[in-house]
Amino acid sequence: MTLTQGQALSIIGMTKRTVASAASAVSAASAVSAVSAANAVSVASAVSAASEGARRHDPPGAFTVHHDGVTIPVTRGGRGRPLVFCPGLNSTQAGLHELAELLRRDYDVVTFDLRGHGPASAADRYGFDAFLSDLVAVLAELDLPTAPVLVGYSLGADLAVHCAAQCAHAVAGLVLIDGANPLPEPFITEADLAEFRAMAHDLATQQAAERVKSTAHQVSLTAQNIFDLNLEIDVVRSAILDQYRRIDHPITMIMSTSIAGDSLEGRAPRHNQLWQAGIERLVRERPHVSTSWITADHRLVFTHAQDIAEIIRSTFRPAGSATF
């Protein structure tokens, strides 16, 4: 299978179902379950401060959250209903800048970087639980008048679902952009492992060039980090329906029609069909979930920011807007 660079960047930033041995899969799933149980306690305690009322007012602008030995840069601006953006694996708040700016005139928008992404510090450990703790730490530092809507992209969507499931009072709703998809079968097979490992290597090489330039888009993860994280995230997604069952807040899915690109050859058609099948599975299980499809690949948050902003406005109306 030969993928274009755009397809590689699209696919590698999303999860792939682990295709290790049955024993390894069970071990990984058990580890994730243990992490989720521990996080249920830590999320609840960490974000409780955000719902207890204002202790101080964080002025709009940039500030830093320090936790777990890492520094997380946060940017806040705008006014109105609060939205907290959570970027995905290999994406940064700088990459979400256009979408955030489109919404700041109507919403109080908060963006931040996960550990090892953008100007956030690198870390000794990377994993789903570590990234979830970054989101939790940011929420705990915010002084918001009401619970925010979480807007998650790719991995950020999965983090938002787990946060909302484990601490419902801290969240008012979810906008999930091309992530948190409960796929009904493996996205990647044994035959694809070498190809995906190569894509992780290529992406890490590109990121190394960004680090040399010290840009806000830089990512500190190695190729092995990226590959391992995608396998772990896939285990998390295999059980994500359980998390959805615990959420009563409004959920809006904004999904790409061509997650793997628009090629009619190779494995892209299967990947795209599977991506749609996962959402169909979710809607059957949770009929209240609203879904919008955008004709795009996994880069939709960058290429279709205007469309996504309009969907968010129509679903979670700005404060003071007319309702019909």
UniProtKB/TrEMBL annotation:
The keyword Signal applies. Gene3D superfamilies: alpha/beta hydrolase. Keywords: Signal. The keyword Signal applies. Residues 82-215 form the AB hydrolase-1 domain. Pfam families: Abhydrolase_1. Residues 1-22 form the signal peptide. InterPro entries: AB_hydrolase, AB_hydrolase_1, AB_hydrolase_fold. This is AB hydrolase-1 domain-containing protein. It comes from Streptomyces olivaceiscleroticus.
